[in-house]
Design a protein that fits this description.
Layout: H1 17-34, E1 43-44, H2 46-53, H3 57-69, E2 73-76, E3 80-83, H4 88-112, H5 115-134, H6 137-155, H7 158-182, H8 185-201, H9 204-227
Antiparallel strand pairs: 1-3, 2-3
Helix pairs in contact: 1-3, 4-6, 4-7, 4-8, 4-9, 5-6, 5-8, 6-7, 6-8, 8-9
Length: about 230
């Protein structure tokens, strides 16, 4: 997930080339999983995933450890890597936890972001609006990935960021898998853009309200999926 205008303002902050490759492997594999290109429940080898991404086995192994912590893969001894299933019933629990952590991180980012970081959030909001109008789900996932990661960095609370990361990944995959049934990408992009704008203004109360509105939308989307099977 790269080549985003938003990312010109995002520093990855690592001087270690192997760690940078690990980040690349994580982002490539995360997108393949979130978009179900690696189907839920499928089994893979480390070598196969290395070949699929074009990245060496050592950074792929590092990325898989992170993806396992994000509940996107299960590492099976002697049996390879299993892509986790999309658990519809668990998504409401994901959102229950995400609501509190997302609000904490968003308010903290509104409070602590630098002027340059706030400008980047405003740029991200504009990009999300454009994506919503274009109805481009892959581009949405990429910008969403970058912006959420950036917001967590701006919050300056690594403990909350680590707890929130797997919830974001699970939510992105849930939305993508079910997007054709009930998802309105224009509205999804708008609620996320509203949050980015509030952070960009340094508006803590506005960030909290926008965060709750965003989670409310996700909860309603999930309930419709559950009710309609």
């Amino acid at each position: 997930m790269s080549d985003l205008p938003l990312q010109t303002a995002i520093s990855r902050g690592s001087a270690n080339a192997e760690l940078r490759l690990g980040d690349q492997a994580y982002e490539a594999l995360e997108e393949l999983i979130v978009t179900a290109t690696l189907p839920p429940g499928s089994l893979w080898s480390e070598a196969g995933l290395s070949e699929r991404t074009g990245i060496g086995r050592t950074p792929v192994r590092e990325a898989l450890q992170r993806l396992a912590a994000d509940h996107l893969v299960v590492l099976l001894r002697r049996h390879g890597i299993k892509i986790t299933e999309v658990e519809v019933g668990n998504q409401l629990l994901v959102l229950e936890a995400r609501r509190e952590l997302e609000r904490l991180v968003s308010v903290a980012a509104a409070r602590r972001a630098t002027a340059e970081e706030r400008e980047a959030h405003v740029a991200g909001a504009r990009e999300l609006h454009d994506i919503g109008e274009a109805r481009d789900p892959i581009r949405y996932l990429r910008v969403h990935f970058a912006l959420k990661k950036f917001t967590c960095a701006c919050a300056r609370n690594p403990y909350a960021a680590r707890a929130l990361s797997p919830l974001h990944a699970l939510s992105r995959r849930f939305f993508y898998v079910h997007r054709e049934r009930f998802g309105d990408l224009t509205e999804v992009a708008r609620v996320h853009a509203d949050l980015a704008l509030a952070i960009g203004r340094g508006d803590e109360a506005g960030a909290a309200a926008a965060c709750d509105a965003m989670t409310d939308y996700a909860v309603e989307f999930t309930r419709r999926i559950i009710i309609n099977g």
